[in-house]
Amino acid sequence: MKGASKIVTAIGVLSFAGAVVLMTALILPADTGQPEFTTLAIGERGSGLGREGNVERVERTIHNEKEWADFWQEHTSLLLRSPRPVVDFNTEEVLAVAAPYSSYGTQLIIVRVERKESEIEVEVWERNPLDERMLLPAIAVTPFHFVKIRRSTLPVRYSWTLVR
User: Fold this and answer.
1) Tell me: the pLDDT tens digits for 15-32?
2) 20 to 30 A Cα–Cα from 124, which one of 20, 35, 149, 164?
């Protein structure tokens, strides 16, 4: 679908006095041909990232199965304890981003991975599609996006853009 925009739908569950399912859409840039990455997992989990109180963004390149197993165990919630996606670390590596927020609905999505001569550039969009006037209870959430790319020895540089 070259030249057209793609729409990605993220589904989240917010629970207070019952479960409410919210669906939001994020319009991504137009397809430019062969994708540079494949999504392994995308979503949002509650109660911080891995350890309680983590307030740092995560930008991680994972090069082997042990790192991937440890990272998956630490950074996925009990609700997301699905089998770890398979990655062939002989030819692939994992890029992972996550960041804690105090409001439900924030999305993190890797929209571009581009190989340059001296580095790999990763563009990450941060977006909270909920109306800022909505009153929702404060809840610690951590949206995340994990992708795999062809293995490389180049350094990875992440750039983050707030999208309204």
Assistant:
1) 332 323 333 334 444 444
2) 20
Q: What's the token pair of residue 87?
A: 């990655």
What pLDDT, on the 0 to 100 scale, is given for residue 81? 66
Strand partners, 161: 125
- Which of 63, 55, 56, 28 shows the shortest CA–CA distance to 42? 28
- DSSP 3-state of 97: strand
Backbone angles phi, psi at 20, to 5 degrees: -125, 130
Tell me the pLDDT band of 163, cut-offs 50, 70 and 90.
confident
Domain spans of the chain, in order of start: 33-163
Whether 46 and 140 have beta carbons less than 8 Å apart is answered as yes
